[in-house]
Amino acid sequence: MPDVRLASPRGKWILLTTVLGSSMAMLDSTVVNVALPRIGRDLDANLSALQWTVNAYMVTLAGLILLGGSLGDRYGRRRIFVLGVVWFAAASLLCGLAPTSGILIAARALQGVGGALLTPGSLALIQASFHPDDRSRAVGLWSGFGGIGAAVGPFLGGWLVDGPGWRWVFLLNVPLAAVCVPVALRHVPESADGGSHGRFDVLGATLGALALALLTYALIEARGGTWAVVVSGIAGLAAAVAFVQVERHRADPMLPPDIFASRQFTAVNLVTLCVYAAFGGFFFLTALQLQVVAGYSPLAAGTALLPTTALMLLFSARSGALADRTGPRLPLTAGPLICAVAMLLMLRVGPDADYLTDVLPALLVMGAGMVTLVAPLTATVLASVDTARAGLASGINNAAARAAGLVAVAALPLLSGMTPDAYRSPAAFDAAFDRAMPICSAVLVLGSALAFLLVRPTARGCRRLECRTHGNVTAPPLEPERRT
């Protein structure tokens, strides 16, 4: 039985290590959007390249995050975590030195692989190391510090872009890794699941990531209308069908189909797909809108986004308590509607937009909607399956959110009529942004309707979260396995 106490020196070192590791991935998921206009200018990249700069990372992270946790159970959680940190730092270095957009995109895909190893690994280390009496508090501290990292990400990204340059958005990960790795090797005990002897679902993970990559390519490049787009789309659908078939027939699937036998689990994941598709498109385009159209500097744009994550950090724990009293249907129905209003309020953000009257109201409403929605969504996912499968359910929900976000970043510019050079023209981008926000709002309304129609209204539909504080806007909290 793990016996490290949180108050001990070793416990503090373990917590520091896991927070540093997870913060690398958490920061990266929020800082890059702010740097996109400067990246596009310096590398002479069009809008498609900027979409891939975001999505190459998300494809590999979403496709491999479930496999990453299994690797740690089999080969040692510390070993896989350290491998993930080193991999992530090496890919970050390549991103920071990239001379072309093509190399940057390839390096971002490699970053996602590292993120898939270290993100579940950091949480697994806490679960495997701390005494049961301290485990819940350690997980709470881990999620709280990670939430702070997510919150300061846009601000830090803007400061780096305005100061030493956008390359430091990536290069910053190298010194963090240089601290994290030796501390992990010296102070974190190794652990593994001795009963984990099944075959890894490498084929399933490969097919899932391939389907996401091909469909993303088809959506991003659809404006060209080439045969490559058609072939990519068909191949992506074929890979998705093959993924489902492989998961249905494997003895140890990465994504067990029987978990979707729970109507509640299926319903909440459908809501997740809708709301995080809208969130992904919103934060991708808003960071560009504030800089390209409103004339904000990267630092001002990053700072402008702080209220949303600050509200989540301050009130996410209380929203979970609300769902305990009311049941999950009310917050899962109301939250997306509040966020839909926020996206329509963003239509006020145009040339020379005033922050206090045009930008801040929309972001405050957005934060209120996310506070209402995110914690109850995760709690309902966990409660919809057996306790022993809570970690798996959380991982699936997290991966679904990231997949929805990357599809939105790929599809929304196409649906709103953005040209490849739209971000270089304030008037063209503003017009497309005004078409994109109602689309995001409509997707949120769909998510609200699904929650109202499919989610059971009883208070028994929620479960207490261990990751009580949360500030990441790209995916719901990643909850740990329930250990005794």
Automatic annotation (TrEMBL):
TM region positions: 49-68, 80-99, 105-126, 138-160, 166-188, 200-220, 226-246, 267-290, 296-317, 329-347, 359-383, 395-416, 436-455
What PROSITE patterns is this protein classified in? Answer: MFS
GO annotation, biological process: response to antibiotic
The subcellular location is: Cell membrane
Show the GO cellular component annotation of the record.
Answer: plasma membrane
**Sequence ranges assigned to domain Major facilitator superfamily (MFS) profile in this UniProt record:** 14-459
Q: What is this protein called?
A: MFS transporter
Q: Which organism is it from?
A: Streptomyces bungoensis
